[in-house]
């Protein structure tokens, strides 16, 4: 849709949220444009927070207005419907004095939740630490990656994270303006394949990693090799990386991309969206295109794979603002 209005927003609830958020509130912000798909509609309200006090204000606005709240990282696994998001989208300020700081203490690393994962991978390599080179190819934030257990190239966040600091935006503290924060150790995160047990309104403010001493030159070359591999094997442009998770227990010969290709869907187009010719588990959006076209194509691909192979794929990306639809199997929990 065009414009800054979002369908289905209660005007009274919106006014309550705006009055509480004050200068934090940006009404009708182009949420879709903030994702790596770069298509889709606005958020009813967007708040960029710089500290715990701001998060408390967001929590109070959420509780008083009844509007849903959506933690947003760098938008690398979000697809926002053309109709927009009828709630409060929350982003962490990536400034170093807010949620973008990185500190090293031996092999221990602490990164603000808004730190870009590629930046964290390169800074860790520069500090002669190894074990995080794989993350240079993941375009999300440290907090988002920790929340959904992002991974690639044979590793994932579960191999590196020791603890996260989380803001529970929906938890009531008993004191107006407060937000509950909690340090959660890795054993309590419930990590699985591209999922954790963090709640939908839990926002990861900081991530603690345990890496290993390494060689800066070797790590830098490993990072370069990963970047080269991704350029050769994965498409650029407007996408959110892998659309579907690889089905468990089927082996690499039955990866999601291979199943999509076997179903004859590689290169198939739906309006302004297309299954990539370079990698069948990527769906590209045209510049100025429609998020709804992308969503329709995702469902077309899933139906074709189920009909061809009997496998029901589940999405790795998170759909925001779309009507719910029945899905077989369990859906991995994603971060925005």
What can you tell me about this protein's structure?
It is a single chain. This protein is an alpha+beta fold and 336 residues long. It has three domains: 11-92, Uridine Diphospho-n-acetylenolpyruvylglucosamine Reductase, domain 2, CATH 3.30.43; 102-232, Uridine Diphospho-n-acetylenolpyruvylglucosamine Reductase, domain 3 (2-Layer Sandwich); 242-315, UDP-N-acetylenolpyruvoylglucosamine reductase, C-terminal domain (Uridine Diphospho-n-acetylenolpyruvylglucosamine Reductase, domain 1, Alpha-Beta Complex), CATH 3.90.78. 26% of the residues lie in helices and 24% in strands. It is built from seven helices and 18 strands. The chain has helices spanning 11-21, 52-65, 117-126, 142-148, 216-233, 256-262, 291-309; strands at 25-29, 43-49, 68-72, 78-80, 85-92, 102-105, 108-112, 129-130, 151-152, 155-156, 161-168, 180-185, 202-210, 212-213, 269-270, 273-275, 283-285, 318-320. A five-stranded antiparallel sheet has the order 6-7-13-11-12. A hairpin with a 2-residue loop joins β15 (269-270) and β16. The longest helix has 19 residues, at 291-309. It is globular and about 55 Å long.
């Amino acid at each position: 849709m065009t414009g800054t209005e979002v369908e289905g927003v209660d005007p009274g609830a919106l006014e309550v949220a705006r009055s509480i958020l004050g200068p934090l509130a940006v009404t009708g912000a182009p949420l879709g444009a903030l994702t790596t798909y770069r298509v889709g509609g606005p958020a009813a309200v967007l708040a960029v927070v710089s500290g715990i006090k701001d998060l408390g204000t967001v929590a109070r606005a959420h509780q008083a207005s009844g509007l849903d709240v959506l933690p947003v990282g760098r938008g690398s696994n979000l697809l926002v419907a053309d109709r927009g998001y009828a709630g409060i989208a929350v982003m962490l300020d990536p400034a170093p004095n807010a949620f973008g700081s990185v500190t090293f203490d031996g092999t221990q690393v602490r990164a603000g939740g808004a730190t870009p994962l590629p930046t964290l991978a390169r800074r860790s390599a520069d500090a002669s630490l190894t074990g995080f080179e794989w993350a240079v190819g993941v375009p999300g934030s440290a907090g988002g990656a920790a929340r959904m257990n992002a991974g690639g190239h044979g590793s994932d966040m579960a191999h590196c994270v020791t603890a996260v600091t989380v803001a529970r935006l929906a938890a009531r503290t008993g004191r107006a303006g407060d937000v509950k924060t909690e340090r959660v150790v890795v054993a309590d995160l419930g990590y699985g394949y591209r999922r954790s047990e963090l709640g939908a309104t839990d926002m990861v403010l900081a991530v603690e990693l345990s890496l290993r001493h390494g060689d800066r030159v070797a790590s830098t070359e490993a990072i370069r090799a990963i970047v080269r591999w991704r350029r050769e094997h994965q498409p650029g442009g407007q996408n959110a990386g892998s659309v579907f998770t690889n089905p468990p227990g089927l082996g690499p010969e039955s990866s999601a991309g291979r199943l999509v290709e076997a179903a004859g869907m590689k290169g198939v187009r739906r309006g302004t969206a297309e299954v990539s010719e370079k990698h069948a588990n990527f769906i590209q959006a045209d510049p100025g295109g429609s998020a709804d076209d992308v969503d329709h194509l995702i469902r077309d691909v899933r139906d074709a794979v189920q009909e061809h192979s009997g496998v029901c794929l589940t999405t790795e990306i998170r759909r925001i603002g779309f009507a719910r639809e029945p899905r077989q199997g369990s859906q991995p929990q994603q971060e925005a």
